[in-house]
Design brief:
There is one protein chain. The chain has one domain. It starts with a helix and ends with a helix. About 80% of the residues lie in helices and about 0% in strands. It is built from 4 helices and no strands.
């Protein structure tokens, strides 16, 4: 993983999560803004999949458990898809809150992926 890219992803995920959480607690239903903010996080996660494939080939292999890393990454890619599907099916303020929780959860998962990639020794 690339540290600056991870920091960007975590920042965007936190901003999206807080935005959706505040909008949901304010009573707003899912909108283009809330779903779009999580879609941006999803786009960055897809880019992370590409980075995770290319990085070992470029001489940046993970120091931690590769299986654990990929389980985190695939789970992180699937979370926004499930959250957006739920938000579009059940258009209530609570689905917007769930989008916020997903965004904040992704920030934590991204940090853990960075730790697995760079800190742990296999």
């Amino acid at each position: 993983m690339i540290l600056w890219f991870t920091v960007v992803q975590i920042s965007v995920a936190c901003a999206s999560g807080l935005f959706c959480l505040i909008a949901g607690l304010a009573g707003r239903r899912p909108s283009d803004w809330t779903v779009g903010s999580l879609a941006l996080v999803e786009l960055l996660l897809v880019a992370q999949v590409i980075v995770a494939i290319v990085a070992p080939l470029a001489g940046n292999p993970p120091t931690g458990d590769l299986l654990e890393y990929w389980v985190y990454l695939i789970s992180a890619v699937l979370l926004p898809l499930g959250g957006v599907a739920w938000a579009l099916l059940e258009r209530s303020r609570w689905s917007t809150v769930i989008l916020g929780v997903i965004g904040l959860s992704l920030a934590i998962m991204l940090w853990r992926m960075q730790v697995i990639w760079t800190v742990q020794l296999a």
